[in-house]
Amino acid sequence: MVARGLLAVALATGVFASAVGVVAAKHESRQAFIDQQKALSQRDVLNLEWTQLQIEQSTWATQGRVEEQARERLDMIQPDSDRIVVIGGGSWAR
Q1: Are 9 and 2 a contacting pair, CB within 8 Å?
Q2: What is the C-alpha separation between 67 and 62, in angstroms, rounded?
């Protein structure tokens, strides 16, 4: 009878330990899923920001924008055709 009681206690302890292990594993799984979702959300935000930065860069680098800035900020002008001198033009034509 005593052996049977000890066996029941040992089995109950094993079942309890197994249940605690299942709960802990489930909690870790849920926490990992939450962390993954946060990382995916952050990735999406960063991808959107990267796309916006690429669009902004292409906007700032357009020919018209560069010309406008050269005229306004640097006071540069397009020279008249009679003031343009081509040096060594024959070698460039090749």
Answers
A1: no
A2: 9
